[in-house]
Amino acid sequence: MATAPIMANNDVFGPLINFEFHSLPSILLNDSLKNKPIVPEDVEINVLSIIDQDGNVVSLDYNLDPEGIIKLPEDIPPGDYFIRYNICQKDVPDNCSEANITLTIIGISIDAEKTLDRTQALPGDIVNYIIKLKNTSTFTLSNIILTELLPEELMLLSSTPSLSTSNTWEISNLADGETVELGLSVMPTIDGNYTNEVNIKVENYDQTIRSEELQVRPKMVDLAIEKTSFNSTVNDGSSFEYQIIVTNNGPDPADNVRIVDFLPAQLAYESEVLNAEGLLSTPSFSQEEDILVWNVPQFEVGATLTITLTVKAIADGRIRNRAEVSADGQDVLPENNTSIEVKTILPLFIPNVIKPDGDGKNETFVIRASHRYERLELVIFNRWGDIVFSSTDYQNDWYAEGLLPGTYYYQVKGVNFDKKEKQYKGWVQVIK
């Protein structure tokens, strides 16, 4: 007697989202035995092979129970799977039939990138990042969490939309094919190389993307200083000018510029005049005993600051006056950060000509010595050795009153603040 054939028919399930658990209908529902629906107790199900969409044999995480129900756990890799199976009649083991189960598993697909508007910056610059997120899945995504993994050396200035206190954004819904854009502005605080990352989580999707590397280099400046007194002859007791010229030859603006002039002991500060070209910040001046300091908050590339410094010589001899300039960052040419002017201060000036003629020039016998001596004693002689003028506390007021033009001789005694004395002798021509 012939056995009624058993008939297994192909089954297709999907697409099935892989972050969900699935319990599929029994594969026996469309199979038959003796032209009647199969009773699970009457048959045995055997899986013969499983291959993926590329024809490779794979091991698939699933459960097929005797009832013909397939249970699929979460996180099965997306793709098409083909399960070849047979069903055999328990009472007649040779009565079998084969069929295929096609499973289509889909997962979350997101195109994401993080870009920045510059790859090189200086500490204090503003760098902008853009995060673009496109849902390339075939279904809507909900509750996407993006966590900004900002290096601590990059200070967050602002973000669009605003980040939460835990540095996260939450996107409630993103339809398939939809794109969202987020942005943030940061400020590098220290030089170095930094990669900015963002983590994206939704269901079983957990990916971290990174931007291009941001290279933060130190500020590089070329501050130059030049100091001169124009080789003018100076006597002890005279005032004269130094000129200090400071320039920034680049490549970057200089911050917190400090210009220092170290006055030697033989000089005393009197005044300073500033002339700036291309400088947006106002210099400030301070004096710390013999050290003169000018501070400039920012010194632009190509800017020039000229300082005309008036000082008074208070001792004779060879002097060495040094000026320096410094700033934050790296100076590419440190050898031009210092300028030294060497000068010889001649002894105390005592004039050898006076013209008491009423024109207001060289009217009196002026000895510039108040910086050195508390008191001057002066005696004037004519050519025969007669005293024609004397003072024990001379006030620069002798103008040869009542005397004829000619040559006269002087003796000067300077009494300093320590009561020590010094003698000077010479001649003076009176012109009337």
For the residues shown, what is the average pLDDT?
Answer: 94
Radius of gyration: 48 Å
Largest sheet: 6 strands, mixed
* Tally of individual helices: 0
Structural class by helix and strand composition: mainly beta
Spatial separation of the terminal alpha carbons: 164 Å
- Widest sheet: strand order? 22-31-29-24-27-26
Features of this protein?
mainly beta, single chain, five-stranded mixed beta sheet, six-stranded mixed beta sheet
Question: How would you characterize the overall build of this protein?
Answer:
0% of the residues lie in helices and 58% in strands. The chain contains no helices and 36 strands. The model has no long low-confidence stretch (mean pLDDT 94). A hairpin with a 5-residue loop joins strand 7 and strand 8. The chain has strands at residues 6-7, 11-17, 22-23, 32-33, 36-37, 43-52, 63-64, 70-72, 79-89, 96-106, 110-116, 120-121, 127-135, 141-149, 154-160, 168-174, 179-188, 192-202, 205-216, 220-221, 223-228, 234-236, 239-248, 254-262, 267-277, 284-288, 291-299, 304-313, 317-326, 330-331, 338-348, 353-354, 373-381, 387-391, 406-416, 421-430. The protein is mainly beta and 432 residues long.
